[in-house]
Amino acid sequence: MKKLYFTVLTISFMFFSNVSFGQIGVQAQPENNFWDHVRFGGGLGINVGNGYFSGTISPSAIYDFNRYFSAGPALQFSYQSGDNFNTVLYGASLITLFNPIPEIQLSAEVEQLRVNQTIELEGGDFEDNFWNTALFAGAGYRNGNVTIGVRYNVLYKDNEDIYTSPWLPFVRFYF
Q1: How far, in whole angstroms, is CA 151 from its chain's centroid?
Q2: Is the dihedral of CA 55, 49, 113, 34 positive or negative?
Q3: Rounded CA gap, 63 and 97, in Å?
Q4: CB of 35 closer than 8 Å to CB of 159
Q5: Nearest 5°: CA angle at 37, between 32 and 38?
Q6: Residue 147: beta bridge partners?
Q7: Using one digit for the tens of pLDDT, what is the confidence trace for 107-120?
Q8: End-to-end CA distance of the chain
Q9: Those residues with Cβ within 8 angstroms of residue 174's Cβ, 6 or more apart along the chain or in another chain
Q10: Which of 46, 89, 90, 158 is least crowded, fewest Cβ atoms below 10 Å from its Cβ?
C-alpha cells in the first residue's frame, strides 16, 4: 500500500510539474528591448552679453531607466566670440536627468571640452588650446519632449573658465 501511495504521488507530481512548465513555455514573455528605452535629442544654448555671443548645439541620446531617471552621452560643438576673441569648443558630456514630476526636470552633467581660442592683441594674435572640465547642476520646466531651464557650473572660477558666467540657460529636447 505504501508503494502504491508513493507511486501515485510521484506520478501526480511529475504530471503537475509538466503541466506547470508547459504553461510557462506557452505564455508570452515580455521582451525587454534596449532600444525601446532610448530617446534621441539634445540641447541648444545661446548666451549673449555686452559684446559677447555663444551658441551651442549638443546632440544626445539617453536611456530611460524608468519614468523618473534617464542618463546618456552627448557630443557638443560651440562657437563663442567677443570684441577681441573667437573660440571653438568641441567635446563630450555625460548627463543624468531626474523628473520628480512630469513638469520638472533636474539634471547633473559632467562635460569635457577641447578649447581652441584666438585672442586678438596689439602686436599679433595669441592662440590658446586647452581642455576644460565643467560640472553642471540644472533645473527646468518640461512640457512633453522639451525642457527649458538654467544650469549652474559648480566648477566655475572667474577668469579661469571658458564661460563668462556660471549660469547658462538651455533648451533640451528628446524624442
Answers
A1: 14
A2: negative
A3: 10
A4: no
A5: 135
A6: 142, 172
A7: 999 999 999 999 99
A8: 70
A9: 39, 40, 41, 42, 60, 62, 70, 145
A10: 158
pTM for this predicted structure = 0.70
Which amino acid makes up residue 38?
A: V
- CA angle (75 as vertex; 98, 138 as ends), nearest 5: 30
Measured in whole angstroms, the distance separating CA 138 from the mean position of its chain's CA atoms is 12
pLDDT at residue number 6: 46
Q: In the chain, which residues have pLDDT < 70?
A: 1-31
What is the distance between the alpha carbons of residues 173 and 96, in angstroms, rounded to a whole number? Answer: 14
pLDDT at 162: 76
Instruction: Give the residue from 73, 137, 149 showing the smallest Cα distance to 104.
Output: 149
Q: In which residue are the cell numbers 533640451 written?
A: 172
Alpha carbon distance 71, 49 (integer Å): 31
What is the model's pLDDT at position 30?
A: 61
User: What pLDDT was estimated at residue 160?
Assistant: 75
Cβ count near 83 (within 10 Å): 8
- Please enumerate in sequence order all residues whose Cβ is within 8 A of that of 63, keeping only pairs 6 or more positions apart, or say none: 34, 37, 38, 70, 71, 72
Residue 45: all three cell numbers together:
544654448
- Of 65, 17, 14, give the one whose Cα is nearest residue 39: 65
